[in-house]
Amino acid sequence: MSTRLWYTAPAEDWNGALPIGNGRLGAMIFGGVYEEHLQVNEDSVWYGGPMDRNNPDALKNLPKIREYIINGQIPQAEELMVNALSGTPQGQRPYQTLGDIHLYFSGLHGEITDYQRELNLADAIHTVTFKVNGYTHRREIFATAADDVIVMHFETEDPQGMNLTPLLMRHKFYDYTGKYADDTIMLGAKLGGDGLDLNMMLRGRIAGSSNAACSMEVIGERLVIRGAGEITLFFSAGTTFRYHSLKESVWKKLEDSMQYSYEKLKERHRADYKALFDRVKLDLRGDAAFDKIPTNERLKCIKREDYGLTELYFNFGRYLMIACSRPGTLPSTLQGLWNKDMLAPWDCKYTININTEMNYWLAENGNLSECHMPLFDHLWRMLPNGRETARKMYGCRGFVAHHNTDIWGDTAVQDLWVPGSYWVMGAAWLCTHLWTHYEYTQDKEFLSGHYPLMREAALFFLDFMIEHDGYLKTCPSVSPENTYILQSGVRGAIGMGVTMDNQILRDLFSQCIDAARILQMEDELTSQFEAARSRLVPTQIGSKGQILEWDREYEEAEPGHRHISHLYGLHPSSQITVDGTPNLAGAARITLEGRLSHGGGHTGWSRAWIINHYAKLWDGKKAYENLLALYERSTLPNLFDNHPPFQIDGNFGAAAGIGEMLVQSTEDRVVLLPAIPAEFASGSVHGLCVRGGAEVDLVWENGGLTEFTVRAKAELDTRFVYQKKEWMIKLPAGGIKTERVETY
Question: Where does a domain end: 600, 621, 656?
Fold first, then answer.
């Protein structure tokens, strides 16, 4: 199993640096010899405090906006929306870099040989080794969730030891630096006038070398170490988002971790990490020769037969999820946990019209269900704000969110961009993740605790939708970020009852109805959800055989657009399936072909979505072709996804797509090897999860399934399908069943 990213030189820039994280703290490590650089992040470092940005003029102008839309006066509707619906102010709060750790090594005289740096996904440890004058230097760094610190350990065979001067920096955006204790330096800042306070600290522990006395002291704002044969640095940081007594809390993290030897810290870290990572093992029988090629060189010469690269990419996706989304942390942003900028692209926030959702597609099928929890916690932060937005802007009950949110759970309109800003489906889509989590875990206690969120998200639309042409429709409505061309030649984006809205609401209403039945909480509102669901516009097929994106057939302004919102019903939903709705599945295929023929998939996350779409169409050939295209065109030297610039959603989306190629599940059936490409002729996978509450192992040889094992986490009663074979499997919680499959 390929689990190692490795290189023969330090990173040339941030896109070559390697990520570590414990969910809350993260770092990008450059691997320099004379100067090691860690660009560091903490998940709550956001500029500014909470705001009420709901436009006070929205509600009184909503009827006029709807009148314009119904009458086809799209430019007038859009002009009024920009003025009356946009947030005041227009922007939410940005996620920022925490800062940098610079480690200056002096006294390294002589030729540097045998340099190598690596990130081992099997134990989440970053290692750099090299020789100077024949003496080996070894540097290990990891972010441990067990002790909630970043640990840096340096050792050398050189009898003169090492000289090291660490320095904390933050692009000059800080308020104080200096000594906290004799072995500790710190840096602190205010994140805006009404924002949080931050503090970070670095503490050292040293051991002598064979020939030199070692020493450590703070001079000015630097920690100065001389003649050490072994150095361990401990780093932690935090903000007043979590900690009232900030400095004391950060210091305690260091104090607690200092109780352990380095080897014990590493042991605790490995045990914690591997308990998550080792749940899934993918073996595509890759040629070990490819693993001997440095990762950046491997990417330059993509080979169809380099199956180990797909193993590595899948493992990297699961590694990243463990590293940036743990219970108790904030959800992963557009860049996960890793952001080098004070003002990042798109503010490095939560873009909830696809990107945040895609970040969590891997959580359930990738057997990292608890990594999903930060997203659910954030929905509770959004709830009170979303209620206010629903009431003030639209005069509706329930709660609503638009296409972005931030650390404070802001739900008002973000930006002044008609194709994207005025979309009202953010909370609805996010709430479908609650049901997905229940489907995979069968955790009724979880469902009971989170059903109120689903219910309030659905309640909003009972009030918000309007009657038109015999249907209930969202109005105003956009298909995220896309535009159409009217017969007059005018471009527009606003409409009503677009396809994606209907598909999301069909899921959300159905999930609320099912949850109420399971929890024995059916009431009048449940009946209203059923009635509303029956009046949604069905997914329609256009004149070219394609899925219609809007409520009518328009000419597309960008036929190769990166968003494929009208195929939400194919993925992540299962409203469109090969075996259940073949006509719609055929139309979805035509839709994909149209997007790709006009240059679609040009962003990494969009290509990842396409991989999932083809997997759901049971087309392993096309899924693999798009996976290779992702490696070739949208993958950076450190395997990060390239939008461009870096966005982590493509990593998670493509890794989830690999899982969908191997196993797919709905509430009533599990499909085995639905989209296995010919290239993956033989292999095995252990530990993928399916709906109904079970883990599945598969073994296949020469393109055919030979064996599968089901381990039930909850009472299981479902149908397993492989090609024309079916098995009805019933198991109690904890039950295991293995089936041998005859091949022909």
Answer: 600
- Asked if residue 463 and residue 369 are part of one domain, the reply reads yes
Residues in the chain: 744
Provide the pLDDT for residue 744. 54
| β pairing state of 281-283 and 162-169 | unpaired
Give the three-state DSSP class for 291.
Answer: helix
Cα–Cα distance, 22 to 41 (Å, whole number): 11
pTM exceeding the 0.90 threshold for the entire prediction: yes
Element (H, E) at 495: none
The 10s digit of each residue's pLDDT in 399-457 is 999 999 999 999 999 999 999 999 999 999 999 999 999 999 999 999 999 999 999 99
| Residue that is last in its domain, among 584, 600, 616 | 600
The residue type of 108 is L
Q: Is 71 helix (H, G, I), strand (E, B) or coil?
A: coil
Query: Do 695 and 367 form a contact (C-beta atoms < 8 A)?
Result: yes
Domain containing 552 equals 58-88+325-600
Angstrom distance (rounded) from CA 678 to CA 659? 16
CB 186, CB 200: distance < 8 Å:
yes
CATH number at residue 346: 1.50.10.10
Which residue stretches of the chain have pLDDT < 50? none
352: helix, coil or strand? Answer: coil
Question: How, if at all, do strands 669-672 and 716-722 pair?
Answer: parallel
Tokens 């889509």 found at? 429
139 SS3 class:
strand
Residue type, 69: I
The CA distance from 286 to 283, in Å, is 7
